[in-house]
From TrEMBL:
This is PXMP4 protein. One of its GO terms (cellular component) is peroxisomal membrane. The gene is Pxmp4. It comes from Oxyruncus cristatus (sharpbill). The lineage of its organism: Eukaryota, Metazoa, Chordata, Craniata, Vertebrata. It holds the Pfam family Tim17. PANTHER family: PEROXISOMAL MEMBRANE PROTEIN 4.
């Protein structure tokens, strides 16, 4: 027993020494990036999948739990693979060129995005749309910082909010099929189901009546 504990301590010490070696830092960063991608993907997807599944999907409890697990695994796996690919390509480019330059990040992320997120499925679609909205905001701010467009005299956010909501509700009302399924479900719940009720039970307590009255 004591011998086993001693070997474990020796192994931990050796691992800690390895982690401090500067020459292995790039490779170790790739491994930790894979770990962080997997953990972060699970943390982000699990609560989202839990809420959306129980709110909008039908089926047995087992089927719902299976859907949550599958969505969480897919998000966690893809993010882990992407971070691993991105960090690995960044390390290779930096090693080959002797330094890190801005284009390295763009090229590594493009290749990673193509390889990992290139399949058009609900999980990847949600991630890409999430990133796209933040990219548009980021590029707008960068354009102002670089002087490509003038600094607005007033906060443009109210106008952006008005245009976004106006556009998305117009699409929902007249071109619903162009919106992502989860967004369609959310908007149906908010804007269509709120027009249907039979008595106090499905007016205040429930969204829809489950009995056959």
């Amino acid at each position: 027993m004591a011998g086993g504990e001693g070997r474990l301590r020796a192994l931990l010490r050796a691992a800690n020494v390895l982690l401090q070696q500067r020459r292995y830092r790039a490779a170790l960063a790739v491994i930790k990036g894979f770990r962080n991608g997997a953990v972060y993907g699970a943390k982000i997807r699990a609560p989202h999948a839990l809420v959306m599944t129980f709110l909008f999907k039908s089926g047995s409890l087992r089927e719902k739990l299976k859907a949550i697990a599958q969505a969480t695994y897919a998000h966690s796996r893809n993010l882990a693979y992407f971070v691993f690919t991105y960090k690995g390509l960044m390390a290779v480019q930096s090693r080959l060129q002797g330094k890190k330059i801005p284009f390295h990040a763009f090229l590594a992320a493009c290749l990673g995005g193509w390889l990992v997120f290139g399949e058009n499925n609900p999980i990847n679609s949600q991630i890409i749309m999430y990133l796209l909205s933040r990219i548009l905001f980021g590029l707008s701010r960068l354009a102002v910082e670089k002087g490509y467009i003038p600094q607005p005299k007033q906060d443009p956010f109210p106008l952006v909010a008005a245009l976004v909501w106006g556009t998305v509700l117009w699409l929902f009302e007249y071109h619903r099929e162009t919106l992502q399924p989860s967004l369609q479900s959310s908007m149906t719940y908010l804007y269509e189901d709120s027009e249907v009720w039979h008595d106090l039970s499905d007016f205040l307590l429930y969204n829809k009546r489950t009995d056959s009255k």
